[in-house]
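Side project, low priority. Logging it here so it doesn't get lost.
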Amino acid sequence: MAKRGRPKGSLNKKTLEKLEQSSNGIKEEDIGVDANGSPVVQPLGKAGIGKAMKESLGKTQEKVLKGPDMEEAHDIIDEVIKTESKPTKKTRTVKDLPRNPSIVEILGLVQETKGKQAKVDILKQFVDRTDVKYALKAAFDERVQFTLPDGLPDGFVVGDPDTPEGAMDMAPERFIRVFKRMQYWVKGGNANNTSKTSKQEEIFLNTLRSLEKSEAEFLLAIKDKKMPFKSVTKEICELAGFDLTPK
């Protein structure tokens, strides 16, 4: 009768469990026996050790051992350099405007300035400029109504074609010198009662032709009761001290 029991050199269940817990990835097939029948671990060699380590490591451990992704690191460095090399835009103030600035230069500065109170503070510095008063009244004051026809003649060129854009001083005329001509173009103006409509329009068109382009476009906009500088509102102008609402 055959003798029952484990074959010589085999391991019982408890021994196998202990080995599994302490093996760090060493499997049963890696375990052999010596001449006396005692269990021994077969040498793994470099390849076997690497394989066993890999199987026992988690994703984080593998990432640490693998080292940094150099392509990703270079992308991060490039992004940092790109960000730091961007020029910082200087915040302009009234001191940065030219002497006797144009109405479009003043309102352009207000437009780019952040913050309601900061905009008000800029306009306060020009509350005594008559041309600024006329311009803001034309745009916002409902008491000022233009009598000029809508639109422009076909093919009409707005602004002096020989004046470089932004070079107000090089134009034949400047808004700061011609703003009083509005008396010819509004209801109740001093000359409105005596001049013919055709004469009023002729003066207006000649003025548009003689101004630098941005000033001419501004005059054309306020004639239609529009403010081209969107953040320059009636409220901000009145907070600065301009009288734009009928009492």
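Brief comment: Strands lie at 31-33, 39-41.
Revisit when time allows.
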